[in-house]
Design goal:
The chain is α+β, with helices and mostly antiparallel strands. It is built from three helices and four strands, in the order H-E-E-E-H-E-H. It has a four-stranded antiparallel sheet. Strand 1 and strand 2 form a beta hairpin. The longest helix is centred in the first third of the chain and has 49 residues.
Length: about 140
């Protein structure tokens, strides 16, 4: 009988220890993400101060080639992501059509005619899975 109680005690102790380790991992991950977002925001603010506010928007005005942004599931009028053409390549914006989410090496000329026309006019994608599907299909 004692062996049974000791076995149950050891099992419960290991279970609690495992849960505590998992929770500490989640907390550390959240802190890392928060720190990364703060660093990105600090760099973006520093880059904005260096950029002349009177210049029109262009990809060259950004401090980096792409701005990481968290969409938090907020959908725009038609979807979360917006595809547009910039200098002959596909550029992914957030639904506000101002925040660059990702630059791509996908040439607009290499796309099928219907898709090329949609992107030249501006194409919305409803979610991240649709965006990644597009990128997988048309990236070289």
């Amino acid at each position: 009988m004692r062996k049974l109680f000791y076995s149950i005690g050891v099992f419960l102790f290991l279970g609690v220890l495992t849960l505590a380790y998992y929770e500490s991992y989640k907390i550390a991950d959240i802190q890392d993400r928060k720190w990364l977002m703060e660093q990105t925001e600090t760099e973006r603010i520093a880059g904005q101060k260096e950029t002349d506010q009177n210049e029109p928007f262009s990809i060259e005005n950004l401090p980096g080639t792409a701005v990481m942004a968290d969409t938090n599931g907020e959908k725009g009028e038609y979807g979360i992501y917006y595809l547009a053409e910039k200098d002959g390549y596909v550029l992914v914006y957030l639904s506000d059509k101002k925040t660059v989410y990702e630059t791509t090496s996908i040439s607009v000329a290499s796309l099928p005619d219907t898709l090329r026309k949609e992107i030249k006019m501006g194409k919305y994608l409803k979610d991240q899975s649709e965006l990644y599907s597009f990128l997988e299909n048309y990236s070289s």
